Amino acid sequence: MAKRNIAIGTLLVGMVLGVIFWGGFNWAMELTNTEQFCISCHEMRDNVYAEYKGRIHDLNRTGVRATCPDCHVPKEWIYKIKRKIQASNELYHKVMGSIDTREKFEAKRLELARHVWKTMKETDSRECRNCHEYGSMDYMAQGRRARREHQEGLDAGKTCIDCHKGIAHQLPDMSEEDPSAVLAVKPE
Amino acid sequence: MKNQTAKKPLLAALGLCALLLGQSALAVEIQSLRGENAIDETTEVPEVKRYNKDGQPLPRNYVLQPPLIPHKIDGYEVTIKHNKCLSCHSWKNYRRHHATKISQTHFQSRDGVVLANVSARRYFCLQCHVPQTNALPLVDNTFEPVESVSSW
After folding, report:
1. A95-126 in b/e burial notation, b at 16+ Cβ within 10 A?
2. Complex prediction ipTM
3. Which of B53, B75, B91 sits opposite A143 (nearest CB)?
């Protein structure tokens, strides 16, 4: 009898602890999924955040915002965990001071941007599509250029990031991708 | 060089005339940005000007006019690292995006040397090309292009 009580007791305690840990875990996940958290590091605040301010996803006619995690952290649980584990790399580079000045950041920027482009390409720009969807776009309400390119893009199997690089931040020197859109002769 | 120094007094005289003429004209017509409002009155808020939606290319009014921008350019950046305009208007990209291609004249340095890419003096597109708003012209204009060179 006593043995059984202990067993049940352990089970109950286990369950309660589980709920607490699970809740705590998810709570921590949510806490680290806010703009406030992202810009608690000056590396993020002084560079990408400063550039994002005032852009369409921060300030627009309807007042709906897309914040850092909306574009950079997946919504689905399993992908979210994966991204959070990857983020430990950011902690390492924070400690190493890899991008702790504007100059260092600019020097590394193309590499970082390429990571993001690659991920978005692989997921068919999943995070953009959490809010925007080809299927829900009223092409007739769009501008002349958007209407044409969205229909062509959809047919050609293109994804948002193919055409909308630099939607939230300044772009790095992409002369390797497209030498025709950079200043050819840089001032010394 | 010599020629220029010889012209100097003449230029100065002309400049002086222009200045005098200009000033007497200004004295009558000058109006501050406040309009005719008294200084202690609040001015009426002018109507907000909106950039036009995307449209067809706009007709050019005279030969060699920098074409006007017939679409919105909110959020487009031209920095030393990247030129958003050229991502559609460069010779490499214009076909794919159905855009007007950048003029060949933009590939020359100021000494007339032909370059392999857009010249730095033509890189900052908005120095000459501007988007349009719903504003009415501030000054009447009766200019008409010569028939033989107007394509519109």
Report:
1. eeebbeeeeebeeebbebbeeeeebbeeeebb
2. 0.82
3. B53
Handedness of CA A184, A185, A187, A188 (dihedral sign): positive
Q: What are phi and psi of B114, to 5 degrees?
A: -80, 130
Residues 97-156 of A with CB under 8 A from B: 143-146, 148-149
Domain boundaries, chain B: 46-152
Q: Which residues pair with B51 in a beta bridge?
A: B133
pTM confidence score: 0.88
Give the distance from residue A106's alpha carbon to the nearest chain B alpha carbon, in angstroms. Answer: 10
DSSP track, B94-128:
TTTTTPPPPPGGGGB-TT--B-SS--GGG--GGGT
CATH classification number, B46-152, choose in 3.40.50.2000, 1.20.1250.20, 1.10.1130.10, 1.10.630.10:
1.10.1130.10
* pLDDT tens figures, B26-84: 556 777 777 777 778 887 787 888 999 999 999 888 888 999 999 999 999 999 999 99
